[in-house]
Specification:
The chain has helices spanning about 5-10, 15-40, 45-75, 80-110, 115-145, 145-150. The chain is mainly alpha-helical.
């Protein structure tokens, strides 16, 4: 059996690892979103309360979208790769936007030259780096992998 034939029969190699990553990412984001909703008490209805609700909903949406992509890969849906690439772009976009938002919020609420500015900048870079690496690895894999090409007939 050739490599091309084995790819058409089953999902293997790094695709299994991607499927597991999408499942774990889904569980993590759903638990984060739901946990944050339970953590809020609702007695202090300031802007952080509403930001928390938005953050929770975004986390739950990312989790469900992640499950959906993993399910499509597992079932070898013809649009699984396109859907997963869209998810990866959505995922990195949301986290970069929230990172920039929290950085600017922290920066504008403190003095321009404070040490907190550099700490916040460093924290946001460190916080976003694993997400950027996750995005780059899987997006490039889905784009250039022969296994993906043969398994899903991606042109």
């Amino acid at each position: 059996m050739t490599f091309e034939e084995s790819c058409k029969e089953k999902i293997g190699g790094w695709l299994i690892f991607l499927y597991i990553n999408l499942f774990v990412l889904g569980v993590y984001n759903i638990l984060t979103g739901v946990g944050y909703l339970f953590y809020m008490d609702g007695t202090n209805l300031d802007r952080y309360f509403y930001e928390g609700i938005i953050f929770s909903l975004i986390s739950i949406i990312i989790g469900l979208y992640s499950f959906y992509c993993g399910y499509n890969i597992f079932k070898k849906d013809k649009n699984a790769i396109r859907t997963t690439k869209k998810f990866l772009i959505f995922y990195i976009s949301i986290y970069l936007i929230t990172g920039i938002y929290y950085f600017l919020d922290s920066w504008l609420n403190n003095s321009l030259m404070s040490s907190n500015f550099l700490e916040t900048l460093f924290y946001q870079i460190i916080f976003q780096l694993p997400k950027i690496i996750f995005f780059l690895i899987w997006y490039l894999y889905l784009t250039y992998s022969k296994r993906v090409k043969y398994t899903f007939n991606v042109v």
